[in-house]
Design brief:
Strand 1, helix 1 and strand 2 form a beta-alpha-beta unit. With 61 residues, the protein is an alpha+beta fold. It has a two-stranded parallel ribbon with strand order 1-2. 30% of the residues lie in helices and 20% in strands.
Amino acid sequence: MGCPITVLVVDAEPKVTLDEAEAWREHTEAVADVRVFSGGHFFMTERQDEVLAVLTGGSLR
């Protein structure tokens, strides 16, 4: 049993590597979904529609 985890990471973030984001999979026995966005540190603002779609389970229009 475990709690599902969704990890949001960007490909140009100097502080968090993709391997570090993937390591979150070790903290649950449930599904751990790692979503990689293009962009940098401020991707949540720059890619707001895509981030919100992931968080709400919606799809992009």
